[in-house]
Batch of 2 targets.
Target 1
Amino acid sequence: MTKNIGIVLFDGVEELDAIGPWEVLSTWTHHFPDDGYAVSCVSRSGGPVLCAKGLVVQAHRSFDDAPPLDVLVHPGGHGVRPLVQDDDWLNWVRRQRDVVPLMTSVCTGSLVYAAAGLLSHRPATTHWASLDWLTTLDPTIDVRREERFVDDGDIITASGVSAGIDMALHLISRLAGVDRAREIRRYIQYDPAPPV
């Protein structure tokens, strides 16, 4: 039986927060279907989503018609600001926590998890510019300021933007093994060497 990974989309989502993990995870699921995973994008109502910098992307499914998820990826971006005060959104996130075995976030997506109460008394991270906001939302969070991503078992939070790629490769390592993650890393030629 196929296991489902859902990447959440919303207006104002940071492009790379969503598309980076999509690239990693969809490369994996397309090249290794026998591993038993599928990935899709979900949004509140389905349909097109306007990202933070103007890219328009199409969600595959709405929240209501998405398959049961085994992994949820919640990106960040400027669109998170209204979501941390959106009771309907936060309640949806809490309902996912009740049924989804592994919740992950990228960048300020962890702020949504914090606002929903998912990170209470747990280690977590977010984009460097929002680390204090994470503490403000829930002072019990053990904020990891220097870590690229934090794996706390059933919740993984990644720091800013490009860290979603690292987190997605780590996710493959957890779900299908280190060798598979290395194959995908090589295939997408992800070997950061900053120019400055």
Note: The first strand starts at residue 3 and ends at 9.
Target 2
Amino acid sequence: MDSPSLIEHDTGQDAREIMLVDPSGFEAWWDALPARARAAVEAAQFKGAAGTRVILYGADPESWSAAFGAPATLEPWDLAGAVKALPAGRYRLAGREPGAAALGWILAHYTYTRYQSAPKPVEPRVLLVPKSVDIAALQQLAGAQSLVRDLVNTPAEDMGPEALDAAVRDVARHHGAEVKTITGDALLAANLPTIHAVGRAAAAGREPRLIDMAWGRKGDPKLTIIGKGVCFDSGGLDIKTSGSMLLMKKDMGGAAHALALAGLVMGAKLRVRLRLLIPAVENAIDGSAFRPGDIIRTRKGTTVEIGNTDAEGRLVLCDALTLAGEDNPDLVLDFATLTGAARVALGPDLPALFANDDALAERLLDAAKASGDPLWRMPLWKPYADMLKSDIADINNSASGGFAGAITAALYLEKFVDPKTPWAHLDTFAWMPTAKPGRPKGGEALGLRAFWAYVERRYGNHRNE
């Protein structure tokens, strides 16, 4: 997506006007229209409802403008529908500033064409914005969201652990970051046994690995971002049904979010010592696959009974969380497509937020509201930890009874977090099951912009130059 050509500063270029009409202001807008325009509005039965539109012709057929229904305060996706409805060209909003909706304008041009033999070229609709708009920041944010979409949309055949490693290295190279990878049996020597156990059944060339990226000055606050990188999840020996397996290429969506957020941090040159940890595995099946009933000793030393091989995400994350804590970070954030239970509770569009710090949670929710990227906080309800008890090990990786699946998964992760370290966990879907304006069906960043708004606010007062 060529985002630099989609937003320009308004210096008086020729452009068609877009009028945004809120239903509450429709009558006043109607009264100011010339007779020719009123006829078009009546014919289209346009009343300013969100998502509706009308073309208003001037004195000749080439002289036209457009009116779209939109709320008084624009949210990120309120202009996205206009992109598909208008021909290529330049446009400016009449008497309005796009605000947050400029991002949706850019992202509405996104297409995923990697596997199309003859992809249709994207014809740019260019939005003119005031000089006060930071176009570079918009492009970086749109690029981060598009990166998540690209990585999640890529089939597992071409997005295994090795390809995810390469994607991290591409981003790192752009920003001068360092990347170290621990692969295969070296994970055991490095005391990362749960990552090894989940991924050890994968085919040659797709061995499990821990991707560890570092950037920034050592004396700055330590920000650690972790992403679940299960590049395909068969369910292991507790195999999924074919229907449940169909979308499991997206089970590395947490890693995609984590990498995109890391890229935003580096692109903005925030004064942090950034660490990105991605345990990248394929949960496959062969004779070496880990089994229900196995006991695995984690990096922390906690022993885990495997109640379900399909609860593998928390296994790869727990060693990464323990490793992160050994570095005494200022803040730990993790992203994961962790539980179907979160989707049952909140649906596909609303990620579940868990945090061990109330102030952190409140500020993330504030950032979510300000960025138009919603989150919903779920409780770390301590009594439910009893559901993770094991008769023969310290803990079970799968809760008994089937209740509160998102909460018990988060409680499992919390056991591997230093309670003195502020930590937030996002259980996100990373997918749009149906297309919406600006958001095609497929991979999607859900919660990324909220977390970025918080991180930028927390660390943005000082930037590396």
Note: The longest strand covers residues 273-283.
